[in-house]
Amino acid sequence: MKNKYPLIEAGKNLFLYRGFTIRKAPRNNIIKCATYLINKRDDSNSYDNYLGRDFALAEAMRTVDHMLKAGGSHAG
Questions:
Q1: Which pLDDT band holds residue 2 (cuts at 50, 70, 90)?
Q2: How many CB atoms are closer than 10 A to CB 38?
């Protein structure tokens, strides 16, 4: 099923999705695979809130969709 929301590649390791920032983190010796960090700017636009880590870009997008559907305090 095709996602109806666009994933915007803002840089080599930076993606924007539904008002959230998804950043590809560098690999390290402990975690051998790439991870994706999910952040969202707070309401006053002064700092980013860290909202989680996933092991695939598609998982990170599903996490954002789930947060928005649940309507938590960080939902846009």
A1: low
A2: 24
Locus of tokens 């994706």:
36
Query: What CA–CA distance (Å, rounded) separates 52 from 54?
Result: 7
Question: Which residues, 6+ apart, have CB-to-CB distance to 29 below 8 Å?
Answer: none
Q: How far is CA 65 from the centre of its chain?
A: 10
Query: Which pLDDT tens digit goes with each residue over 5-60?
Result: 999 999 999 999 999 999 999 887 776 788 999 999 877 777 778 888 888 999 99
Is the pLDDT assigned to residue 75 strictly greater than 60? no
Instruction: Give the chain's radius of gyration (CA, Å).
Output: 13
What is residue 57's three-state secondary structure? helix
